[in-house]
Amino acid sequence: MRQRRNVLLIVVDQWRADFVPALGADFLRTPNLDRLCREGVTFRNHVTTAVPCGPARASLLTGLYLMNHRAVQNTVPLDARHTNLGKQLRLLGYDPALIGYTTTTPDPRSSGPKDPRFTTLGDLMDGFRSVGAFEPNMDGYFGWLAHQGYTLPPKREDIWLPEGEDAVPGATNRPCRIPAELSDSTFFTEKALTYLKGKGEKPWFLHLGYYRPHPPFIAPAPYNTMYDPADMPAPIRRERWEEEAAQHPMLRHYLRGIRQGSFFHGAGGVATGLDEFAIRQMRATYAGLMTEIDDCLGRVFSYLEETGQWDDTTIIFTSDHGEQLGDHWLLGKVGYFDESFRIPLVVKGAGAEHRAGEIDTAFTESVDVMPTILEWLGGEAPRSVDGRSLLPVIAGEKPADWRDVLHYEYDFRDVHYSKPEGELGLSMDESSLCVVQDADYKYVHFAALPPLFFDLARDPNQFENLAENPDYAALVRDYAQKALSLRLRHAERTLTHFRATPQGLEERKPDPAPVATRAAAE
């Protein structure tokens, strides 16, 4: 008899990879995440293939690179023709549940301009059943607060102001005005437990999303003082932000334009105005929000154990994207630096074929999550998907033709809250970049701006652009060719394996190119 197979996909928001204890963050206390790492496989070289939230989640849940799904920015629609994890799970007999959000703007051809979904940053992706919605506009959470008897302030977001009438918005160790038992992390956890307790013996899939450690960077008590700013890693940045800005025109735009108010509710001033102590305090709060999530996950894990479902459940822990946290004088998820793109991925599998307690160094990407889940449940990823199943890697049998570079993209066209095009003199279709990098080098190609090239062994923090250095000209050429070859291999291919023949329609089974063939092509 086949083992019951449940899947818990945990998607946190804005959690960067170097804030995982198994990957070196020994200052962070996350016993439940630590347990997942002990019982599963932790991936050291994992990236989201796009930022910010909307594009990142589109790639995670469709398995497509940004260049193929084209939901290139928050607020940009996702084409209805694309399938996604939820729709594919339905073909396998699952009713995929979703708690949290996907930041998906619907295809306008399926509705009309008066649809209220077009007045928000994003809505829920088709194919999933919402059992704990946060979108649109966090109404689900604020309604839950009111239902719990909490009196919302006139401006409801003021729950994330620091406690005390004399408090000044900004980096602080004061608690927010909402208590931990009513925080958004508790809200998601309560929704998860309600869903799980209603499932009985039926196999299930649950996308459990958490809003944290996304800003505003303020934590409820006791998490607000759980970490000492002095114990936090110092920011990685040049002495002055103007030195960073000299690296590239796009970087200069963001350094001039990112405001503290997007990260600390009610604050003013630009992000470059944060001194080192403020950044360390922000990081201490960020860590506190992580431990709060970990405590919440402990409640979910305990329920799975108590009901005998722990061993039947594959658990995947990941994030949509990272966070600059003051590195390179930046806040948020922008540009091309690793802090925005490197994210955690931990897979605790159900079954003896999965390794436990190991850290894998294979290059993995967010587009791999969808095909991994589908294969584990007995399905198959559609031909259009850009990612690959991680099951062989998890079992310790990485295929010989596994990717040899990491790839990710960023589109910086104008949206209502950010307008780089005019300052940079670009059209919206020129406002994009792609990255290929391995352990040695990193190449950043812009559609209409100068490229960047970094020698990671000599300059791991990516301060020195070598794209115009004649000593690196051959390497720049080689990595530019890698980027071009990758894009050619992943060009949209939904129907390219079909052929019309004299005998009728033929469907070819695509096989990965042999290693020797790939090496010759590159």
Written overview of the protein:
- This is Arylsulfatase A.
- GO terms for molecular function: metal ion binding; sulfuric ester hydrolase activity.
- InterPro entries: Alkaline_phosphatase_core_sf, HdlasePehA, Sulfatase_N.
- The strands form 3 sheets. The chain has an 8-stranded mixed sheet with strand order 5-4-6-1-7-8-2-9. It has a 5-stranded mixed sheet with strand order 3-10-11-12-13. A two-stranded antiparallel sheet has the order 14-15.
- The chain is α/β, with parallel strands linked by helices and 522 residues long.
- It contains 15 helices and 15 strands.
Keywords summarizing the entry:
522 residues, alpha/beta, Alkaline Phosphatase, subunit A, 2 domains, five-stranded mixed beta sheet, metal ion binding, Arylsulfatase A, hydrolase, Sulfatase_N, sulfuric ester hydrolase activity
Summarize the structure.
The chain is of the alpha/beta class and 522 residues long. It has helices at 31-39, 53-62, 66-69, 85-91, 139-147, 184-199, 241-245, 249-257, 276-306, 338-341, 369-376, 391-394, 420-424, 473-489, 515-521; strands at residues 6-12, 41-47, 50-51, 97-100, 129-133, 205-209, 313-319, 345-348, 358-365, 406-411, 432-437, 441-446, 452-455, 498-501, 504-507. It has 15 helices and 15 strands.
* Largest sheet, strands/sense/barrel: 8 strands, mixed
What name does CATH use for the topology of the largest domain? Alkaline Phosphatase, subunit A
How large is the share of residues in beta strands?
A: 15-25%
Helical residue percent? 25-40%
Q: Count the helices. How many?
A: 15
| Structure classification | alpha/beta
Q: What's the alpha carbon Rg, rounded to whole Å?
A: 23 Å
Q: How are the strands of the largest sheet arranged?
A: 5-4-6-1-7-8-2-9
Quaternary state of this entry equals: single chain
CATH class of the largest domain: Alpha Beta
**Shape, principal axes of CA atoms:** globular
Tally of individual domains: 2
* CATH-scheme architecture of the largest domain: 3-Layer(aba) Sandwich
Region (Disordered): 501-522
GO molecular function: metal ion binding; sulfuric ester hydrolase activity
GO cellular component, one term: cytoplasm
InterPro entries: Alkaline_phosphatase_core_sf, HdlasePehA, Sulfatase_N
